[in-house]
Structure formats: structure tokens, C-alpha cells
Amino acid sequence: MVSFLCCEPTEGPIHPETGAPSMHPLLRFLAVLAVMLSHALPAQAVTLLRDADIEHALGRLAQPVLNAAGLPAGSVKVMVIRDSSLNAFVVDHRHIFIHSGLLLKMKTADELQSVLAHEAAHIANGHIARRFSNMRMANTISGLGIALAAAAAASGADGSAVSALGLGVSSSANRVFMSHTRAEESAADNSAIRYMISARADPKAMIDLLNIFSGQELLNQSRQDPYARTHPLTRDRLRAVQAQVTAAKAKPGRNKDADYWFARAQGKLSAFLRAPSWTLRRAGSSASKDIALVRQAVAYHRKPDSAKALAAIGKLIALRPKDPFVHELNGQILLESRRAEASVAAYGRAAALAPGNALILGGQGRALLAAGQPKRALQALEKARARDFTDARVLRDMATAYAKTGKTGMASVVTAERYALAGRFKDAQIHAKRAADLLPRGSAPWLRAQDVLSAAEAQASKRK
């Protein structure tokens, strides 16, 4: 199921690289955007596409190069931004962002791994840590309140196959923060080639990818892909990469596992983003039968044709009965086809196979809520929220479940948080005040309401 942004609202110990109080990485990411936005031009929406299946596939592809970079397993998450332009970037040491346009443009797993290796090199070489230190932002941003104030976000429409969380980010501020020097790019290229060789990926893919972008700097800036602005491309840089790859004399073989996960991520993403007719014409030529069935199920669901979608998903379950993401997709299709009870069962199987996945838990809670089981829904939703604090859909569903179980104070506080995440601070303030009146003073939920009030006050003072 395609869904979106996850993090836990925790403050940790002193950050080992910046020496500043440490926040959860995504909260820190949002806080960085707040700093940029305070000096930025009018914002444009950035949509993060979150899908447990796609993220699992990208994680499988990233892990060998992350291991080669010395980055601990699970320490870096790869996220997809819905944008047809070609770009990839890092904003902190815990996330790599890749545009959907670039992911759909690439032809091989090696090309994708070359991008991931290059971005991992920016993290491993300390380029992002130095930028944080130079901005001195971590010392001035702490706690949930400012992080909430940073998140100008809005969920996608209820029941949509592809929901979204939009972050207001000025394009000018983006370029300033995410751009790298030519020296950094050269260092990242050198490291990335080493990582790819160590991961047994073909380093020649980096040349193929750079050739896609060659000539971009000769274009008017308005016509350039963002990659050319954030990652300076020069003939010297391309020649240096070619020379290093030639000198390495690497002879990697085909990695069938990498090829499979690349095809699966690309196939499912294209099925959600492109017209169903386009997908159905091409599904038969997919890399494997199960990927073809995933694409068909998504395409028929989007037409919509529930009968054919469920028929495709039935064949898929028979083929991969222990795949949690197959059951998750089945649960989504059933839920959006108004078959809540069947959806509960499908999400239950998915959650049993992947008990720690926040997106699956959120879907399970949503299905339970639709089936009229708010108490059970709360159990799943609270687990999801603990792992994925900024998923506005989970907060919306939690508010409904709390209201249905008579916990109006809790309904108010999560509603306040959801409005804060949407950038609607006046509404957030109303619900936070209501929550503060209903909840026990000094309790953890009461303190969360105070955080939202602080965020709303900070936002109001910024506008004066």
C-alpha cells in the first residue's frame, strides 16, 4: 500500500557529530526545513510517496552499498519524492531522497545503486554533518513544538491509492541547502565507486547515469533537472569517473536478487503513477510473474475494476503466500472496495508477517475502524504512531477511534497534532486548548498539547 512519512517523537542524547541535543532524524529534517523556510521565497509542495513494499525493495538495494560505506544496517532509509524531474539528495544522515522521475528513468539495479552509493558517500564523508554544524541550527531547535511548526504538511484524500504528505519547501532554499561543492562531488564519486565494487555492483553504471545528465549545465536553469543544480556536473568530473572505473577493472556478475527488487519497486511505483491502460499494456513483459500480478492488481484497482483487481491479487497470494506486502495490497484493495471485514483479515495476515511495519499497522487500524472495532483499531494505530509519528492519516484515524471510545481529550490532542502537521496552526491551537482542559495536568498527552500550543505561538510570532 502506498503511504507516507515516519518518525518517532523522541529527543535523544548529544549528537556525536554536531555536539547538539539530538532529535529523531526526521524531526531534525523537518526542523532544518523550518530554518530554510524562515528565509525563503513562497513555498511549493513536496510530496513524499510512502509504500512499505517499495521502501523494502529500496532498502534491499541500498544495504550492500550502505554496508560498504560503513553505515549501520537500518540506519538510512530511502524515500521517494513524487516529482517527474531527475534528482536525488540527502538532507540529514538518516535519509536518502530520490525523485520518482529518476527512479522510473533508470534501466538497471546498478544504476540505482550508483545513485544510492553517491548519496551514501555524502553522509559517510561528513558533508551533511558539516552543513548542520555550520548552520548552528541544532542548538536553537529542540523538542516537538518547533518540529511540528516546521511541518507544513497535508494528507492525501481519504481512500486514495496514493496518499501524500506535502512539505512546504522553497526551491531556492532547497538549492542552497542541498547543493554540494565540486570538491564534495569528486570525493563522493570516488567513494561511491569503491562502495559499488565492494557491493559487487557494476561501477560502469555511474558513467551511464552521469551521461544522462551530461549537458544539463549548458541549459537555461529553468530547463535543468535539479540534479544539475544540486550536484555540479562538469566534463572533468565525468572524465575522472570514467578513468577511475577503467582503472578498477571490476567484473561484477549479474545480481538476480538486486534485479528482482529493482523491477519490483519500479513496477509498482509506475503502476500507481501512470495510467492504468499504460500499465496493463506492459504488465505482461514484467521481470517475473508476481511483479506482473502486482502491476495488474494496482492498475485494475485504479480503473476501478475491483473484481479483476481481486482476481489478480488472489493469484499473487497463491504465488507468494508469506509475503506481507502482498497481503497489505490485498487489504488496501478490499478496504477501498468497502469490504472492511475481509480487509481486517488481510491486514492481520500482513501485520503477523511484518509486525514492526508502521505502514502496515496503520492500514490494519484503518480497516478495524471501518469494520466498527475502534478499541482494536486503537491498539494497532498506537503501535503505528509509536513508529511513524508524522503520518497524518494515522492521527486522523486515532482521533476517530478515541472519539468512538469516549476518550475526547485524546481525540483532541491527536487532532491538534494532525492540524499542526498540516500547517493549520489556528485550528491546531483550538484543539490543543480543548485537550489541555480535558486531560490530566502534567500527563504525557497534556504535555503533547502544550507542545502544539508552543508551536502555534511560535508560528504566530513569526508572522508578526
Automatic annotation (TrEMBL):
Cofactor: Zn(2+)
Keyword Translocase in record: no
GO molecular function: metallopeptidase activity
Keyword annotations of the record: Hydrolase, Metal-binding, Metalloprotease, Protease, Zinc
Superkingdom, taxonomy of origin: Bacteria
SUPFAM superfamilies associated with the record: TPR-like (SSF48452)
Record Gene3D superfamilies: Metalloproteases ('zincins'), catalytic domain (3.30.2010.10), Tetratricopeptide repeat domain (1.25.40.10)
InterPro entries for the chain: Mito/Outer_Membr_Metalloprot (IPR051156), Peptidase_M48 (IPR001915), TPR-like_helical_dom_sf (IPR011990)
Residue intervals of the Peptidase M48 domain: 58-243
Pfam name, any one: Peptidase_M48
This protein's name: M48 family metalloprotease
Native source organism of the sequence: Thalassovita aquimarina
